[in-house]
Amino acid sequence: MKYFFYRAVAFFLAGTCLVFPAELSSGSAGATRAKWTGSFPAPTLVDDLDLPQTPVTAGYTVARPRLLFSAMDRDELRRKARENPALWQPVLNNARRVLDPAATPSPEDVTHGKTYWRIECVQSAALAWFVTGETRYRDGAIRWLLAHCREPVWGTNFRPNIDLQASWYLYYLSVAYDLLHGEMSRADATVIRAGLAAHAKAIFDDFDPVARTAAIRYDQNHTYTPTVALIAASLALLGEEPAADMWLERARAVLRRCRYVLGEDGYYYEGVGYWIYALHWHVRAAELLGRATGEKLMELPALRDNWRYALHLSLPGKPWAFDVGDTGLWKGDHQRPDIRVTGSSLLWSVARATGSRESRAAADLLGMRLPETDGASSAFLWFDNRHEPRPLAEIAPYHYFQDHGVVAWRSGWGTGDTAMLFRCGPPLGHAAAAKLGQLKDWVPNAGHVHADIGAFYLYAKGAYLAVGTGYTAEKWTRDHNTLLVDGKGQAMDGAYHNEHGVPYEQLDGARIDRVSLTKDYGFASGEFGGAYTRQVKNVNLRRSVLTTARWMLVADDFRAEDGAARRLTWLCHADAPFVAEPTASGFSHIARLPQAGLAVLTLTPVAEGLNAEASDTVVMAGMAPGKGRAEKHGYQLALTQRDPAVAIRFVNLLVPLAQGEAPPVVEGVIAKQEEKTISFGLKWPDGRTERVRVDLGWTPGKSSETGPVEIAPR
């Protein structure tokens, strides 16, 4: 096999100064090249390494700079800086971090990597020199390059030299080295090049498919971030380091597998927090390899369609995003943290490469809310005003992420509109089930995905009302707006990796199969009983969610397939305590925030058949596997049937309330489980009335063309 030939050549090259020939890694003319899209990778990484890859373009290895732009782009970048001061000033602000020699990181600071993400300032400084010609930026960047490249260890927090801290260093230092290549002394260049090569080799060795004992988690940012850093270093050192071609080949093979396991619908499975932190590395890889080989790598659903995720997972007000998955780091004051949604530069890059007006619109919206500062150089380089943004009014305010089983609906794009999210799918999407069978060396790592299948989230009246509970070390179903069966939850309930030890097909059985989205309402229904199989067997669960601008209906149907009577618990979380309040409709609990409130009106079962418990939500918080620490993250309402049953239907109406507003009166409820329909009337305090009928048995394409919902004002 060609791969084993490479290993032999590598040992030979280690003692020589020969340049590794490009033909070895790129394949001969006419050979079958590894495809980035349109087919799946080989069963293992070893097999993938036998596939020849597209060579770098002619003249690539002699050009400087070459990674992100060329010397011919200088005038255009100067014009861009003049015309876009709001984007250029943050670059200069970051670049100033390198100007004071006393601020150069100490060996201890470099080794520890405590503020590793600040290394972006070196790229900003190199870019500032390239555009302005001011040598102080160049000299400061070179000082930082030397300070880092002299140290043999990068990042002691987790997996030194091969994980996130080392990866951020390697990428940004490689870009700066490329930009400043002809501006440093021979002695400095030798030190910097040797440091980059040593750290590139560490990552390269970690991905040795023969020597490696740990499984490769291709979906995880701990895998693809080092891979992208290795690509950057390899491309920066091509023509100078003998083994750079081989590093590049292995990195591209790993990346190809990482790209392949991404979802097929533009949804990012780890949540908004890690979407911001991690997905841009896939964009960086597409940019680097696109320039080096001419391949169009942004045409991947996870990138091309990611604008939908940005629009539908973000919120028009605090906390600015739905906190699905490990999103939102709570502090000691027990107050919900704002989420810094800074994904604009990622989407600008996609828009620039694909011409997507929707990506540009999503990027502009996020950039307006929170301008990019941490990644200022990327935001400046990726912004491109040649493609006009599509007006939000032309984009439907609802979407069904079919692969991941997530439905988003909102009444509009305004700050006062209602927004809903409903998740009922497996952690890595449905397509992952087949991919797991294809990639024999892939072990998924969905540690940032929570046990929240069947959960709903609601934002209305300018407030986050039905909420998530933030970043946790122990992923418990009880922390989410979903269901417990006999007090038990989903998959490996309470574990950091909720999916480990559970056959993926059990989680893949969670599936939305009925969706109807219109300007007036959003309806979705899905089954997810299989997610509980590890804890409770033979459970059939279906949740149907209907949302309008004024209310959300949640209907849950439970049946024990083995005839065993069980208790169902319905959960809802909020940022204010739930208080039982008498209403004309009877059984209700209301959580009142300063600016709005959420009323939970239970339509069935009747109050006498339920135990209601309103309490603090205490999660086991933390950012790593292991026992978490108890923290209060809001409040919860738990409704549990008093008597076990083989089958039961829960129906709850959630009503957003303005400050001081009373909930509507619910009349004429028909919601028996043996009926396929639910109907009820609403009488609002302002005198308006509604009559609602929902067909839970509606099937797309087979039922009435009018859809599953009838709402008639009276």
Automatic annotation (TrEMBL):
Molecular function, one GO term: chondroitin-glucuronate 5-epimerase activity
Entry keywords, A to Z: Glycoprotein, Isomerase, Membrane, Signal, Transmembrane, Transmembrane helix
Residues covered by the Heparinase II/III-like C-terminal domain: 398-609
Membrane topology per record: Multi-pass membrane protein
Record InterPro entries: Chondroitin_lyas, Dermatan-Sulfate_Isomerase, Hepar_II_III_C, HepII_N
Subcellular location per the Swiss-Prot or TrEMBL entry: Cell envelope; Membrane
Entry's Gene Ontology cellular component terms: cell envelope; membrane
Heparinase II N-terminal domain mapped to chain residues: 122-315
Keyword check for Ion transport: no
Glycoprotein among keywords: yes
Signal sequence, renumbered to the chain: 1-21
Protein name: DUF4962 domain-containing protein
Lineage of producing organism: Bacteria, Pseudomonadati, Verrucomicrobiota, Opitutia, Opitutales
